[in-house]
Amino acid sequence: MPVRSECCCPGGARGRGAAASLVPPPPINTAQPGVATSLLYSGAKFRGQQRSKGNAYEVEVVMQHVDMENSYLCGYLKIKGLTEEYPTLTTFFEGEIISKKHPFLTRKWDADEDVDRKHWGKFQAFYQYAKTFNSDDFDYEDLKNGDYVFMRWKVKNSL
User: Fold this and answer.
1) Cβ distance 147 to 5 under 8 Å?
2) CA 42/CA 54 separation, integer angstroms
3) Which candidate, 102, 107, 118, 110, places its Cα nearest to that of 151?
4) CA dist 86 → 92, 154, 155 (Å)
5) Fewest CB atoms within 10 A around its CB: which of 101, 116, 137, 150?
6) Whose CA is closest to 45, among 104, 3, 87?
7) Starting at the edge strand that comes first in sequence, how are the strands of the sheet with 55-67 ordered?
8) pLDDT tens, 76-91?
9) 54-65: per-residue pLDDT in tens?
10) Which residues contact 32 (CB under 8 A, 6 or more apart)?
């Protein structure tokens, strides 16, 4: 799933650096461990809706750990109204950030190229990569500079 990282700078100014996405901008010494340089960081919370088969569910995601260098993240997904038995369901997930280390092709969990193409094709942000995502010379550096972070999550257990 792609997550858009929109610029929230006054006047809509855009830059290629992560500092352009944060208000106020982070300090100059943001190379320190633990200093957030994007909207995706350990402790970040996101709220929205998940749509499935004509239904919409309120969701909240809390990122427990985000490691951009290793293209890894994990956290909790809370879904409201999924079933009457469990009005609120919380699950723990681990995820891969799409990168050279974790390409668009899953190559596990019984997913093949057709499954991946169908899944990623649901997201408009993927359209520009649809013809080249399985290429040996795909430019994953281009993803780092884009407006979206693509990732796949795998639910590990319900809490």
Assistant:
1) yes
2) 32
3) 102
4) 16, 20, 17
5) 137
6) 3
7) 2-4, 148-158, 88-97, 72-80, 55-67, 45-52
8) 999 998 888 889 999 9
9) 889 999 999 999
10) none
Tell me the DSSP string of the chain.
Answer: -EEE----SGGG---SSGGGGSSSPPPTTTTSTT---SS--TT-EEEEEEEETTEEEEEEEEEEEEETTTTEEEEEEEEESS-SS-SEEEEEEEEEE-SSSS-S---STT--HHHHHHHHTTSGGGGGGTTTTT-TT--HHHHHTSSEEEEEEEEEEE-
Which residue bears the tokens 């408009």?
A: 124
State which amino acid sits at residue 87. Answer: P
Residue 24 identity (one-letter amino acid): P
Q: Position of tokens 């106020």? A: 24
Structure token pair of residue 136: 């040996």
* Residue at 12: amino acid letter: G
Render the burial of 58-76: b for 16+ CB within 10 Å, e for the rest: ebebebeebebeebbbbbe
